[in-house]
UniProtKB/TrEMBL annotation:
Enzyme Commission numbers on file: 3.5.3.1
Example of a GO MF term: arginase activity
Native organism taxonomy: Bacteria, Pseudomonadati, Pseudomonadota, Gammaproteobacteria, Lysobacterales
Cofactor remark: Binds 2 manganese ions per subunit.
Source organism of this protein record: Aerosticca soli
Any GO BP annotation: urea cycle
Top enzyme class: hydrolase
InterPro entries noted in UniProt: Arginase, Ureohydrolase, Ureohydrolase_dom_sf, Ureohydrolase_Mn_BS
Binding of Mn(2+), residues: H98, D125, H127, D129, D228, D230
Keyword Metal-binding: yes
Protein name: Arginase
Cofactor(s) of this protein: Mn(2+)
Catalytic activity line of the entry: L-arginine + H2O = urea + L-ornithine
Amino acid sequence: MPRAVSLIGVPTDIGAAHRGASMGPEALRVAQLDQRLARMGLDVCDRGNLHGPFNPWQPPQDGYRHLEEVIAWNRALHDAVRAELAQERLPIVLGGDHSLAIGSISAVARHCRMHGKRLRVLWLDAHADANTSSSTPSGNVHGMPVACLCGTGPAGLVEIGGQVPAVDAAAFRQIGIRSVDEGEKRLVREAGLVIFDMRHIDEVGMRRTMEEALAGVDDNTHLHVSFDVDFLDPAIAPGVGTAVRGGPTYRESQLCMEMIADTGRLGSLDIVELNPAFDKRNQTARLAVDLVESLFGKSILIR
C-alpha cells in the first residue's frame, strides 16, 4: 500500500437528489482526516478542491439531470486522479456525490491497463447505482455510475477513461446493498454484477462476506474502494441524502475496513455522499474518518 496519499476535494452535488453533498469535503477536513492519517505515518498532501460548474437544479432531459455539468466534473476528477497515480501517490477523493466515481474509477482503470494491474472495485453502498436513462426514476446520475463504468450510458461519461467499457463488470464487488430500483434489478442481473446484499451479510456475517469479496486479490491487484457513506446504517451515520435503514453496524463496518487493510492492496479511495445538511454535529464525518483510519491499517492490537 502506498504510504503517500493525496486528498482531492470535489465539492459538488451535481448528480444527487438533494443539496448538501458539496459540503462533504470540508466536513471531512473539519473531522481532521489529514491529521489523523498523518499521525499514522502517512505522507499526506491536501490538493485542495477541484472546480467545476454550479448545480443548475434543472429537471432531467432525455433521462439525465445536469448531464453536461456531470461530465465536466468527472473529466476534471479523471485527470486529477491520473496525475496522483502517476506520482505513485494514493488518491483519496473527497466527494461530493457518487456520480464522481465515473471519473475516479475510469482513471484508476486506465492506470491499471497501462501497468498490467488487475483491478478490483469494492463498492460499499446501500444502492446498486446501476440505473440507465430508461430505468431511472429520477434522472440523477449518482444512481448510474456502475452502469456507466460498465459501458452503458452517454458517450461523454462512458468514454472518459479512453476505453469502453472502462471496467469489466466482473471487477466489481458490491457490499451492503439494500435498495435496488425495480427496473434496475434486471440490469444488475444482466450485467452479472457480484452483489453481497444485506441479506447475505445477515446470513453469513461480515467476515465471510469480505473473504468472498476479496477472494483472488493478490500482489498484482489494485484495490479501489468506493465508499458511499450511506453504506452505513443511518442510526450511526445520519449525514447522508439517501438513507436506507438496515445497513452495517459500527463493528461490522470496522471489520470490513480492517479486512481490506489486511490485504495491503488498497490503491485508491472515494469517500462520497456525505451530506452535512442532514448530519448531527459532524458525527457522520467523524465516523467516516474513523473507518478510513481502519482502512489504512489502524487496529486495536499490533497484528
